[in-house]
Amino acid sequence: MRIKELGRRFVMMLRRGKLDGELEEEMRLHMDLRADEHSERGVISEDARAMAQRQFGNATLLREQSHDAWGWAWIDRLFVDVRLAARHLRSAPGFMALTVFILALGIGATTAIFSAVNAILFESLPYPNASRIVTIWEISGEGARNDGTFGMYRGLAERSRSLDSLAVLKPWQPTMTSAGEPERFEGQLVSAAYFRVLGVRPLLGRDFTSADDRLNGPNVVILSNKLWRRRFNADPAIVGRDVTLDGNNYSIIGVMPQGFENILATGADAWGPLQYDMSQGRAWGHHLRTIGRLRPGVGIDQAARELARLAHQIVNEQHPETYGRDFEVKLFSLQADITRGVKPTLLVIAGAVGLVLIVACVNVTNLLLARGVRRRPEFALRIALGAGRKRLMWQLLTESLFLAVMGGVAGMAVAWTGVRALVALSPPGLPRTADIVLNGPVFAFGLAVTTLVGFVFGLVPALQISSSPHRDIQDGSPRTTGAQRRTRSALVIAEVALAFVLMVSSGLLLRSLQHWFAVDTGFDASHLLTMQVQTSGRRFRENAATYKFFEDALEAVRHLPGVTAAALTSQLPLSGDSDVYGVHFESSPVQTSMEDHSAFRYAVSPGYVETMRIPLRRGRLLDDRDRTGAPLTALINESYANRNFPRIDPIGQRLRIGPPNGPLYTIVGVVGDVKQVSLGLNRADSVYVTPSQWRFADNAMSLVIRTHGDPAALAAAVRTAVWSVDKDQPVVRIATMSDLVIATAAERRFALILFEAFAMATLILAAAGIYGVLTGNVAERTREFGVRTALGASRGNIVGLVVRQGAVLTGSGVVVGLLGAAVAGSAIAAMLFGVSRLDPVTYAGVIVILCCVSVLACLVPAWRVARIDPANTLRSE
Amino acid sequence: MSERNEIPERDEIPPGTLYMLILKTLVRSGELHGYEIANSIQSTSRDVLQVEEGSLYPALQRMLIKGWVTAEWGVTSGNRRARYYRITRLGRKQLTTEVLQFDRVIGAIQRVLQAN
Questions:
Q1: Contact A752, A838 (CB under 8 A)
Q2: Has the ipTM of the complex gone over 0.90?
Q3: Does this model's pTM top 0.80?
Q4: Across all residues in chain B, what is the average pLDDT?
Q5: Nearest-CA distance from B65 to chain A in Å?
Q6: Class of CATH domain B2-114
Q7: Domain ranges for chain B
Q8: In chain B, which residue's Cα lies nearest the Cα of A6?
Q9: Which chain A residue has the Cα nearest residue B77?
């Protein structure tokens, strides 16, 4: 029944205009009929009409009562309130501008951060049933995440019943020389089911089949939509045409659709079949990414249990000897996997921006309270004229909502700018940045925040109106009561506390970053230019050709003016390279499963260790003696040597790299530890050999060049020197080593920049809060101060009163903030590096800064107090 | 002043009884428009009860919302458009409740007045 009544009310609201007309007509008919009746009795027509009207009553009032009955009188009142609010706010443009500005910052920053968090963490990936796509990892006994192996992939693909499809992939950078200028692009070599796992079919042509993905299978390639448009003018007849990639003919079999987003390698423009070569003995090397699609109805845990069981079965049956037995198989949803690294950071940033929003609200509440005090006479008048308290509360709420909406609109502009800044600042590891936009959900969020904010900061002044005794309002004096003063002080203390929390958090992040960059890389990163030189083309199938090309290129670079030393390495520290091999020391042939003997394998030209300035600890470095045919030699790093040869001299010991039946290398030297993966990881076990003593030629080598002056200035000359040897070979990833070092902290810097901005904003707001409260108090207590001065208080005493109040506000804020900061410290613990979350230096520094700022905020009010002339103030009241 | 004398002496209807009067009138007469309802109440009360005629309309609107009456546009004998009201089942139930309540109150008041 109630529901039906609501329905009728709703219908009436929608048909408001029509109903109005109908009611009007009905009432007119009534009066006409009554007037006719009077006329028939002989009353002259004007009188008859007047009589009818009198009998009818107050038509306007009755119409209003009918509107009330329809249930939308509140709309009319709302309009009145909004008009009133607009008029009030227009009369205080400074107040309005300040409020809207603060709200716009708060709402805008929150919305911008939300747009990122939403796009990255919550929006599902752009694939059908994306939640069923999983990545599969092997977690070693010591907890490291290992890439998949081809052997494991093949075994799981044959046996698993919980997966629809399974694929492995690795990066590919083919150079295209067929159409126009030679160009190298990003791509992926994938097993046949890759696109089926993602659930996306090519727009043109066909997907890979298992016939494509076998050793010596056909050279086929699928292109991205972008590449197809850019290089082939979106030719609809492209399928079946040939392109030359790395000197070989490839047949184009498909083009991906336009909206296809390749999450695992966003820049990929070409896909080729993996055509894995089992004969190279790498089938059990961890260098492939594995993804799969769960069968409908199969849970991720269920699949994980099955795959774990199968994986151990496979390893036991096929007993690859380098494969550790102590590992776990873990499945992650693709979404969780790509956001794994950034999720904690993003959530912490979202929390921080929430604090900023709270501080903005608190600040605006305080402004409204101060204004409410000044508007007391107005309220007294309105109550005297018969306005109800409820009505006044509604009016105040309307005003704050009105402010919030304006702040929200301006906030959207802030958010729009903020989103751009976020994307520009975003670290390379941040996935899906292209999807960070102001879309429907983000606007809805902004609207929700705006409304919430309006209610929150509107409620306090409104409640004050309703709770203060009548005579307080009605005496109309624009003075604060004790309760109001306490409310305002409490709000300021809250602001100071929140500012303290954010400042401590960003201080801790700053100190972490300092510690991060203070980490010893193990080499000298200054004046070092790096770039990767790759070989592309058929002639490099011969190892000798590859060695020759790299040697010639290195020689050309070494002769450049400004170059003091140069060398080549198969993997460059801190560049993202990670080439790990199992290592067996001859002295300890029996491997315990607990001990991990894998190490980074570097194929380096003689002179590499010298160029990098990695210290030599024992023995000798690699040099030109260590060539093909000469006894096999290797260097290992210090901590690795100490761990494996705690009592004997490592020099002269022998080891095998890769398969246990491989050749033995003799250790000729021990060098210092180097950070390979990250400054934060201590994994440094390394083996260095010369390229010509390695069993195959690496087809991509990094140049490291020590320079006299600015290393970046030499980049073009070095590239030209490489091209003077062979102009068709791509040179990529040009960067100075210092840039690479800085890039290792990209996410930390991103978080730090945001935290610093947030902390700065809240600090300013808190200072403004202190200033506001003190100024207000000074203005109200002018008379009191006058009396005190007249009674003999010195200027110093009176200024002391004001400063003491400021100190109490700041001090209380800091005390509350200490608790908050301790909590916040544990929230950001994962982002800290080399710093305790209760780092006393940070805490002390923040307290000092806060105190200085609060002293600044006290200065103006104190100065005003000092200038009070007792005679004037006493006369003025 | 002269007009007032032509209108017979009337009493305001007791507060809260307007719905009941309207509902009862509709039960008796079926379908009426506002003017007819006002006239009907006045004439059946032998011109004693005076409805402030306009106040019928907010009341009728409220009753429409409550679902006690329905309304349909029709044409009067004078060939003018008018809204005709008709009581619903819900309205009849409401009438019963209100009449019972009214009887109870009146009875109580009378008992108070007749007590010695």
A1: no
A2: no
A3: no
A4: 85
A5: 6
A6: mainly alpha
A7: 2-114
A8: B65
A9: A33
